[in-house]
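ok trying again, last paste got cut off:
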Amino acid sequence: MQNRARWLLLAAVLVPGLVVGAMATALLTPTAAGPDAWATETTLWLGIAAVLAVTFGLGLAAMRLWLIGPVDRVARHMEDLPLPPEPDALLRIEAALDWYRRQNARDRLLLAGQLGAVEALRDEAAGARQQLHEADRLALIGRVAMGVSHELGGPLALLAGWLERLRTLEANHAPQDQRTRCIDEVERAAQQIERLLTELARPGLPRTRDADRPCDLLAVALRLQGQAEQHPRLQQIRLTVEATEPTHPADASASHAEQVLLNLVLNAADAMKRQGDLAIRLHRDGPWQIVDVDDAGPGVPAALRERIFEPLFSTQPTVDRPGQGGWGLGLAISRRTVASYGGSLTVSDSPQGGARFRVQLPVPGR
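nice, full thing came through this time. structure:
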């Protein structure tokens, strides 16, 4: 727009100037006198006046576009600008800014306090994690101790029972063979305890190194039957052993098989309130030796037949600790022991009306 205004102004000055110059030259040139000369001069003067009028109009238009227009726009823009605030408004603005500064300082103090609290909570959380770690370690140690106590409880009870019987035989001057049998059983119980402690000290010991593997499950059951009367929890239990064959060889350790059967018999005795008939039945099913422990207790509900094999889960109270549940370790340890030989331990209904715990172990060389 400014360039066009400049060109328009230049044209308004130059073109009329040239025209006026040409007319003035014509007027100054001598001409012949007469009416025609006077008319020609008059026409020229009128033309010059017209050209000057047009030049003046064009100049005004160019000034309007190039000078007056921008100045007018600037003036209107200045009118649209807000007026400077009054002194009272400035004071209010300053007071508001001062309030925001004070609020910001308070927020910073509050944030610093919150950060300090977060740091304190973080330290407390670290301490709590350490305490939980220590509690987990203590719980693990406790579970190991409970397992050791549970597994050693059976042989220790048998050992104490045979020692008590030995004292009785000694007091009554019983025959030497009876006393010798007590000593042999005490020695066997001590060896069983030693084996358990050795396994606990060397948990990674391969099962293939068991000295008493394979074993005759019938011989194990009969030995357990002979020991039952010396165990304080089995003294009022009538334990019978039934077998379909003269021997029932299994690819398992005799000491481990005896420990498993002892756990099952003791659990069954507790379920029967330590009195009644309890049977151990053996038969072979193809490549498997089957040992069933049948009791006449209340049985195991179908919904709990897997849970009872979980560690620390028990459904029945014990006579030694009224109102409290059992340790819940015997069945878990027994299932793990049987599984280590490739066998299984399950529970179902017994024909005697209670529960039937079935041990399935492989036949050697299958």
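cool. Strands lie at 215-216, 237-243, 249-250, 276-285, 288-294, 344-349, 355-362. Confidence is low (pLDDT under 50) at residues 204-208, 318-325.
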